[in-house]
Amino acid sequence: MKLLITGVCGFVGSSLAKYLRADSPDWEIHGLDNFIRPGSERNRLDLKRLGVKVRHADLRAASDFETLPAVDAVIDAAANPSVLAGIDGATSSRQLVEHNLAGTINLLEYCKTHRSMFLLLSTSRVYSIPPLAALPMAVVNNAFAPDPARPWPAGVSADGLDETFSTAAPVSLYGSTKLASEALAFEYGEAFGFPVWINRCGVLAGAGQFGRPDQGIFAYWLHMWKQRRPLRYIGFDGRGHQARDCLHPDDLARLLIRQLRCRETRERLVHVSGGATQSMSLRQLSAWCTQRWGDQPVASDPKPRSFDLPWVVLDSRKARDIWDWKPEKPLPAILEEIAKQAENEADWLDLSAS
């Protein structure tokens, strides 16, 4: 198997490459990255030591694909992952679309040429914001959850959102680029005869995640707490009840391996997530940090922020039914892994969050 991973020096891309190298040492793994994220250079050195063939390339530049070798499959782990991208002043809307959509088009043209399998890592943020924001919420054990005493829209259960939940606009500029990428991937696969798998991921977390909230709130919160840096509960009731599910990249890698080895016709879009049993609110995360490192104040800022949602938990039962897959690394183990890095690498925030 010859494999290409885009965004290979990011947290998710590098984690997948390391897991796949250990699981399938006979595979030839190539990786692309544009190295714009602080911390990615360190991952580059680690991957090269493992024999991953890493090269600098920008997915927005079609010419960067001209010298790439043919591969059997592509895992697309490259994206600007911020739901505020394009409106926060840090990136323009055009930059976001070029990174997340034009880059996908270049990848699909590459897959068309080589008949390479295409595995897209998508996101929970493809789902419609108004019905999610309007979900009736109750506070249960210091975390938001859908209120069982009130009706829920289609696609919502106590286990989370399923793949049928509405994707009608608005979903954010970021979410729309990923949703458009999904549609194009399916169309290219059908038109040019190569397999496509779409994996909508919940929040991925683990040691080595870059120290920014848009890269992953669980790792960001733990590193900030350990360094005694200021934190805020933003939006809603200002008490940190907003909740997300959590998944380790190793569990994602286990599913990708099954897809890479499959040529059968199966349902090609699934959730890959920790689900309700691996969800946590910021308030609960603060309690975990307090038990580990002692208490510290968290400011309250109830002012709403664009595209924020009180509860996003994905139901991954379809992945279980189709692929016999479920998360194996529990949330406490993920937090422990991050905490150990926070204790051993005090400079990680400054290195990876600039």
Strand content: 15-25%
**Major sheet: arrangement of strands:** 3-2-1-4-5-10-14
**Rg calculated over all Cα atoms:** 20 Å
- Give the N-to-C terminal Cα separation: 36 Å
Mean pLDDT: 94
Oligomer state equals: single chain
Explain what the structure shows:
The chain is α/β, with parallel strands linked by helices. It is built from 11 helices and 17 strands. It has a 7-stranded parallel sheet with strand order 3-2-1-4-5-10-14, sandwiched between helices. Strands 11, 13, 15 and 17 form a 4-stranded mixed sheet that branches. It has a two-stranded antiparallel sheet with strand order 6-7. α6 (217-226) runs parallel beside α8 (282-293) and α6 (217-226) crosses α10. The chain is globular.
Itemize the secondary structure elements and their pairings.
Elements: E1 2-6, H1 11-23, E2 28-33, H2 40-49, E3 53-56, E4 73-76, H3 93-114, E5 117-123, H4 129-133, E6 137-140, E7 143-146, E8 156-157, E9 160-161, H5 173-192, E10 196-201, E11 203-204, H6 217-226, E12 232-234, E13 243-247, H7 249-260, E14 269-272, E15 279-281, H8 282-293, E16 299-301, E17 311-312, H9 317-323, H10 331-344, H11 348-352
Parallel strand pairs: 1-2, 1-4, 2-3, 4-5, 5-10, 10-14, 11-13, 12-16, 13-17
Antiparallel strand pairs: 6-7, 8-9, 13-15
Helix pairs in contact: 1-2, 1-7, 3-5, 6-8, 6-10
Summarize the structure.
Helix content is 37%, strand content 19%. The protein has helices at 11-23, 40-49, 93-114, 129-133, 173-192, 217-226, 249-260, 282-293, 317-323, 331-344, 348-352; strands at residues 2-6, 28-33, 53-56, 73-76, 117-123, 137-140, 143-146, 156-157, 160-161, 196-201, 203-204, 232-234, 243-247, 269-272, 279-281, 299-301, 311-312. The relative contact order is 0.15.
